[in-house]
Amino acid sequence: MSLIASAFPKVTASIDNIPYTVTIVDGIHRWFADESELDGGANANAGPTPVQLLLSSLGACTSITLTMYAKRKTWPLTGVEVNLEYNPNGKPAEGNQIVRHIILRGELTAEQRDRLLQVANACPVHKILTGNIAIDSSFS
How many angstroms separate the Cα of 95 from the Cα of each of 24, 98, 125? Predict the structure, then answer.
């Protein structure tokens, strides 16, 4: 991926005549989002739901960021698993909640694990989700 492509990401999502099945493209990749048949989707399991896509972004970014950091430090991190849940105890009175549980594999010291938690909380998608987001919308 070029520097420009990663610095200014662009994604197009479109829906046609298949209820709730969305085609997503980024210029290189093509994937799908969908809703379950219980929620009116006609092509159930064509892809994750929009919320699952959001969670997967955080999980992927966390995993990649931790792996890159540990590699730079030559720490013995051999794998990362990130489990995410959206509002697992129901919708809070204010806002929403994402619960992220990170499993680190490898013989890491307590200090390394503590530092990796700080790094996880600084991954780019975590920063986006916990920051102030403005969404400018228009019709064409």
Answer: 27, 10, 18
Q: Is the pLDDT of residue 64 over 50?
A: yes
Query: Which residues on adjacent β-strands are paired with residue 79?
Result: 105
C-beta atoms surrounding 124 within 10 Å: 13
Q: How far apart are CA 130 and CA 89, in angstroms?
A: 20
Q: What residues have CB less than 8 Å from 79, skipping those under 6 apart? A: 104, 105, 106
Report percent pLDDT > 90 for the chain. Answer: 81
* Res 130: pLDDT: 95
How far is it, in rounded angstroms, from Cα 19 to Cα 42?
5
Residue 124: is its pLDDT beyond 80? yes
Beta bridge partners of 86: 98
Answer whether 44's CB lies under 8 Å from 61's CB. no
Between CA 53 and CA 51 the distance in angstroms is 5
Helix/strand/coil percent split, the chain, to 5: 35, 20, 45
Which class is domain 50-130?
Answer: alpha beta
Whole-angstrom distance, CA of residue 58 vs CA of residue 78:
20
